[in-house]
Amino acid sequence: MALFEPVVQYEVTQKERTEEVIWLGLDRAYQVMKEAVKTGLTEDMTSRSGMVNNGAKKVYNYPKPVLSKEFQVLISRALAAKEVNSCMGRVVAAPTAGASGILPGVMVTLQELHDLPDRKIMEGLLVGAGIARIMEKRTIRPHVNPIPSSIIDIDGCRLIDELLDIGKCTIPVVLE
Length: 176
Prior knowledge:
With 176 residues, this protein is an all-alpha fold. The protein has one domain (5-175). The protein contains seven helices and two strands; from the N terminus they run ααααααββα. Mean pLDDT is 80; it is low at 144-160.
């Protein structure tokens, strides 16, 4: 049994969705992710405040990569999708709106580097979702259960939660 199959079974039995609906939803979400990356790298991404000002394009076009050209492309793609979000564009808020660039940047780059079909990326997204579901059930969330925590809270943004959400959704996708 492939790693993504129990997640599909969970969705079918617990959420009462058909496999066709699950795959169509994943396909729509991944297409939006790819569009956000493309939009962020090809269109003007200047926010009303000016705080976002086409940074993804600047990173993408910087002549000397810090680590490697592949890493530079990955980072610019993640920034591109995030800038689309910051400029009120269409993104997939996965795992959260604050981290909406990480998954698209990693997935689009991974797909390109390894010549993977969309289906393989969607299988990885399911694995990430399954692991996120398991961790969510095992994590004490201070806003649900008021137990004191050392989680950093900046203006209502729970930094550790955000970082965990990014990691638990992105790493399994890459490994799958």
